[in-house]
Structure formats: C-alpha cells, structure tokens
Write a structure and sequence with these properties.
Layout lengths: L1 H13 L11 E7 L5 H8 L12 E3 L8 E5 L7 H10 L5 E5 L27 E3 L6 H12 L8 H11 L11
Parallel strand pairs: 1-2, 1-3, 3-4, 4-5
The protein binds iron/sulfur cluster.
Length: about 180
Amino acid sequence: MFVLLSQLRSLRRSTALTRGSTPRWLGIRHVDAGSCNGCEHELGLVTNPLHDLQRYGLDIVASPRHADVLLITGPVTTRMVEPLRIAYAAMPTPRLVAALGDCALGCNVLGHPDELAGPVERILPVDIRIPGCPPTPQQIASQLLAALERPADSGQPLAAATAVAASGVRTDGERIRD
Ligand code: SF4
C-alpha cells in the first residue's frame, strides 16, 4: 500500500498540475451534444485517482442548477440545440460555457452535414476552449485550471466566476453573459 501511494504521488507530480493558494470550487455540468464518446472517455479520466480534479476544487455535478460551468462535447446535433439552451438557462449566474474537443470547437472533424447545428459557439457563448480529438485528461485538467488561475482583474468573464467561487457564494445578480 505504501509503495502504491508513493507511486501515485510521483504520478501526480508528473502531471505538473499546481495547487492554487486560493480555495475555490466550481461545479461542472457535462452535456454530450453528439460526441463519438472519445471526449467523454478522456473527461471521465480527469476524476480518477491519478488526475483527481476534485482536489483542485473542480467537480462534475448532476444538474445544471448546481453548475458554474456547462461543459459541452460533440459537434452539436440539431436535436441537441434546445436541450443545450435549456441547460444553460437553468444555470445560476454567473455561468460559463466550455467547449471540449475539436468537434465542439468546429474544427470540421465530421464535415457539415444537415444534422449538425454546431459548433457550440453558434449556440452559446464559449468562455473556455479545450482543443484536441480527443484532448488528453491532462490537457482537459490543465485548461480548466488555467482558466481558474486567470487574475481576478483581467476583465475576462471567467475571472468573475472564479471570484464568486472563491467566496463560496452564488449570486443571481450580475450576469457574465446573457
Ligand atoms: S473531438 Fe474527436 S474524440 Fe471528441 S467527439 Fe469529436 S471525433 Fe470524438
């Protein structure tokens, strides 16, 4: 057991993810908008004992009502447009949208068939972009954490959400974007 824990610490160090000094928490609601499941597979790995995103204050939540970030994978099929809008509308403000994977970012992985309405930014405002097909768990974790580490006075939308998350207080007052 001791050897296992020692190896685990070593692997965590090798991911080069740093722990910020400011305590904070962000809830992430994931929506599959037509993915091949490759991005979901990698996303699932960020919560395993190696990457362990929860220790940095990021966690996957079950409802958009509990989420600060709407994390979207897939090229956005026409049938997923309305569910995405409904999920976004259900989130408390301030709220953020993350597009995960080249499909969600509109990198033409699947071409432009009539069944696709994406990319995500055509449907919702995108604050966090995580490229890759699929991105690795480390890339996903690093992009989310890098976004969290933006300085509070940067004027970028995410900084406001980080400040709210750091205070531990949600508000339905000022909106980041509508
Ligand atoms: S970006 Fe790649 S892995 Fe992710 S949903 Fe598209 S084709 Fe699949």
